[in-house]
Amino acid sequence: MEDRLALRLQLFRDSGQAPPQVTRFVEEELTALAAEGRPVTEDTAGMLTSHLVMALTRLLNGEPIEQFLTDGDVAAQLADQPRAVERARAISLRAKEELGAALPDSEINFLAMHLAVLSRNALGRDVP
Fold first, then answer.
1. How do residues 2-40 score in pLDDT, each as one tens digit?
2. pTM of the model
3. For a surface tag, which of 45, 46, 67, 80 has the fewest beta carbons within 10 Å of its beta carbon?
4. Backbone angles phi, psi at 29, to 5 degrees
């Protein structure tokens, strides 16, 4: 993993903003995405990393994650990105199994948007 992205995760962990199991989970997901050919760097995946860490931490802390007024727009934009949506749902399922924190649909949609961007950045083409 790129040093700057690893530092982002370390800061979440060391500052107490996220529990170690969440940062470990996110690190494993980023490693898997990189192994699939996606360009996982601070520049390309920094926002995805922070978003996923904070969403999972809020869920583990029992904090609500609210629906956004833009959920319908985001879902519509993802209509032509089924692989990104499928991958985001798989991440949510793994989070439920490993952390006991399943992401709600609005978070899955935002995660899928991040994943779609990563796929487009992978050599300028979609990655399965």
1. 899 999 999 999 999 999 999 999 999 999 999 988 889
2. 0.86
3. 80
4. -65, -40
User: What distance in Å separates the CA atoms of residue 56 and residue 103, rounded to the nearest whole number?
Assistant: 7
- Alpha-carbon radius of gyration of the chain: 14
> How many angstroms separate the CA atoms of 50 and 40, rounded?
13
Angle between helices 82-99 and 105-121 (to 10 degrees): 120
| Burial category of 39 from C-beta neighbours within 10 Å (exposed 0-12, middle 13-18, buried 19 and up) | middle
* CB-CB contact of 28 with 98 (8 Å): no
Tokens 């360009």 — which residue? 39
Residue 87 burial (CB count, 10 A): 25
